[in-house]
């Protein structure tokens, strides 16, 4: 389950289909700094210690520190390739998987809503509700149940987070929507762009 966080101004907050490379452990936060785009990602868990099989939540936010601009799928919605993963590493800093990995739906059309304009010094994101110890299945591996211990989670955004809104680009009047969608999937850039800080969680036996 997931909860969307609408675009919020920082001033209001304070007073108001290429495969992705296996992420390497750095233990560090890297902010967005690409041409005129500036920003940073943060995550927070509602429970730092949670029993295996029990629910917990991760609050994911992207703060735009640059000029107001459109960003692709900042709510991390399904049906389209996601522009970020929630990586989990074990105590030896080995990558275990993406905690928000889901099978894509049969959606075959892009929409204007897939891009969101985020004003400067405003944030956008979502709350992901997860199950402690569960790593979703991928094409390369089935789902796994983790053992009790300490783990580290980190949001890693990819370059397609900055993908241009193709619906606003020049296109032929009779261009097929599905063809356009498949082209978007084929050119989706999963190269790493920036990372949030790292959060440690402890999974305990029931």
Q: Your description of this structure?
A:
With 206 residues, the protein is mainly beta. It has a single domain (2-204), classed as Coagulation Factor XIII, Chain A, domain 1. 7% of the residues lie in helices and 41% in strands. It has 2 helices and 15 strands. It has helices at residues 10-14, 177-186, and strands at 2-9, 32-34, 37-45, 49-51, 55-64, 69-72, 84-89, 95-98, 115-118, 122-131, 134-135, 144-145, 149-158, 192-195, 199-204. Strands 4, 7, 8, 13, 14 and 15 form a 6-stranded mixed β-sheet that branches. The chain has a 5-stranded antiparallel β-sheet with strand order 1-10-5-3-2. A two-stranded antiparallel sheet has the order 6-9. Strand 2 (32-34) and strand 3 form a beta hairpin. The radius of gyration is 17 Å and the shape is globular. It starts with a strand and ends with a strand.
CATH second-level architecture: Distorted Sandwich
What CATH first level would be assigned? Mainly Beta
The share of residues in helices is: under 10%
Q: Identify low-pLDDT runs.
A: 10-18
Secondary-structure-based class equals mainly beta
Number of domains: 1
Oligomer kind: single chain
Order of helices and strands: EHEEEEEEEEEEEEHEE
Radius of gyration computed on alpha carbons = 17 Å
CATH topology description: Coagulation Factor XIII, Chain A, domain 1
**Quick one: overall form?**
globular
Average residue-wise pLDDT: 84
- Please, how many helices? 2
- What percentage of amino acids are in beta strands? 35-45%
Distance between the termini: 22 Å
Strand element count:
15
How would a textbook summarize the main sheet?
Answer: 6 strands, mixed
